[in-house]
Amino acid sequence: MRSRVILLGCSLLLPALTNQAPARQEEKPAAAPPAAEAKPVAPEPAPTIPADPAKPADAKPADPAKAAEPAKVAEPAAEAKPEVKVEAMLLEDASAVKIEADPLPDFPAAQEAKKKEDEAKTVAKVGVALLPEKSRLAFANFTSKLAVLRHKELDPEMEKTVAEMKEKGKMDAAATAKLTALGKEAVKEAVEIWLDKFAERYAPNLAQSDDVEDVLSNWNPEQFASSNNLILSPAPTETRVWKDGLKNVLSPENYAAVEEESKKEKKQILEDMANLLADAESRASEVINRTMESELEQLLHYTEIDEARQKELRAASEAAVKETVGEWRKRAEGKLLEMDPKLLKQMNARNNEIGVDFSDEKNKPQTKAVWVDAGKKLLTSAETDAIAAGRENSKNRRAEALALMILGEMDRLVGFNQTQREQLLALSTPLTQKLPNEFFVSAGTSYSYLDASRVLSKVKEIGDTDLERVLDAGQVKRWKAASSEQLINNRVYSRNATSTGVEKPETEMDEIDAERMISKLLDQEAGKLRQKTLTLMEAKLEQIVRVTTLDEAKATVLKTAAKGAAEQLSKAGVVSMDQYIRNQLRSVKPADVPARLKSISVPNNIERRVPEDPKIWTAAVKRLLTEEQNKLWDAESEARREFRLRGLAGLVATEVGKHVFLTPEKDELLRRKMVKVIDEYEDDISNFLSYGWYLQSYYGPVPVALLTDKEMKQIFTAKQIETVKTRGLGNAVQYAEIIKQRHKSRKKTQRQ
After folding, report:
1. pTM of the model
2. Interatomic CA distance for residues 113 and 530, integer angstroms
3. Count of H helices and E strands in the chain?
4. Which of 290, 592, 664, 718 is the most buried (most CB within 10 A)?
């Protein structure tokens, strides 16, 4: 079994965002997630080392909403002066406890650094700043609970540290009081840093939810604040406030002794973790080297450089890799030395894996001076322009593929015609170009997942004026109502059930009362499922009317067929939901049913593929439409299908394009091949793999793996084929073989 992965300086592996309380952590798969009938849970991205060990608070996002600031447990004393008593506030057991102590000296350097970080985070819009204004108070309330829990864990440790330092330094009462106050400030600082990192880790996902308050209400603070699930941040004794404050609290002799002891402890830590660091450095070297190889390959692809210049560039690339790996190792060591000792021991015992964060410029060998200078020296301006244009074209193709994919999903909910699809694509692509870098480049890890909800959010930034110019009023309404929960590849597995209310005191509940409440809940949730499918059918109905100019009388009849089709489409989901909810209530006593229903979850019944239209609908369409109208509708349906396939093919092709660089002609050829493969095999792929297979790096390359050797040679060079097979396909080759067998069996059954 592979070792569990951590995210150093950012987070441990935590459960995927759901509307339930977070579940127990999942182990990463040994080679790849199971490709079975059951839907595999997408693993988290690989761990990373942040940029600068000299900045333990390097991820402190600013919070524009001061009243909703979750990271503040207490307001710092304003301009403390000698001989003046101040009150430090510490939240404990949800109550405020006043602690009087001599004021601590101001720390200008630390405060100035924090101010700059806050300003940078505000500009970048990260953390809490990503959340809607109305959701920040709910987030603040949740994180205040986390603060209390973290204080309960860190305060005793700090008290122990202060007691040891008092005894070793033979400190008097006054010095002990100052050290105690400094310890409390250090704990507060550590908690603030941790909460900032928590916001940075989870706010982006929360921002995609239509109901942040509902999601937060189902999260368990104890799970997030437990030692096993902590987002890593500096220990209190590694914060700026502690390090700066010790110089003013301890005598020079005591301070020197503390520093010496700290050096010995850190030396021992690095010795204890030597094997872990060596393994991490080896893996980091591998992925950083691959990044540089990709950079060099791209450069050589877009230009024609003689052998002499190629040799110099290769030497510069090797030097850049060596420098990057060395700096990464130092930052890794620095972060390990800052960590909470308890978490450090856990990490070492579990042999946790450390990864590389390629969103950090310091981890990119192509930004090193030795490489940049070599490019300036060896490349002409025309060659530099050609490289820049090639990269921009690659990004544009990826952005267009992302827009195609999400518009293909929106088509089910809104109902576009072919002209509208192309117009919306033109409006969406410039927006998807602004998505984070992770949507366009290889993550350098074994697994990555593209969040379709983030693409949807970006595309929905199309302005009202443009929308009203392209869509009619009914379509605009459906466009604006579309949410991430309606996407086929939605990753939210469950949500809160609708409250049924308590009709009588729990103590008076009997089996009949309990069943009445359960039945009421089931009826409400079944209604939601029926409404969801009815929304899809109504979108088709409206589109048929627009395309064929169907008269009102026939449209009314077809509306009845749409309702019947919606009932059939939702039937399986209703049965599944009934079984799921009743299983959760098994063995629950009648008196406990009301309380249980308040927190019960409901599955989202996420489809594995686009559902087929029921016969009640297809037969009604064929009967009610004239021959000419049926031709118009068939043509429009085929255009929608082709548009969707074009999006999936584009995603697959541009995913491969992260590893090899194709000319526009070869890229177009690959896309055409992917359209044919996906059209032929999609039913088999969708039945074998999980929903949204094309968004997951393990599964997305499967259509490429389904190509024949002859087809591969038509698209890629011999070297590119080797690169695609070793870096781009991974376990997709194994999946492809199984899918081919299933496809052959399915076709044989259909012929019989």
Report:
1. 0.65
2. 55
3. 26, 6
4. 290
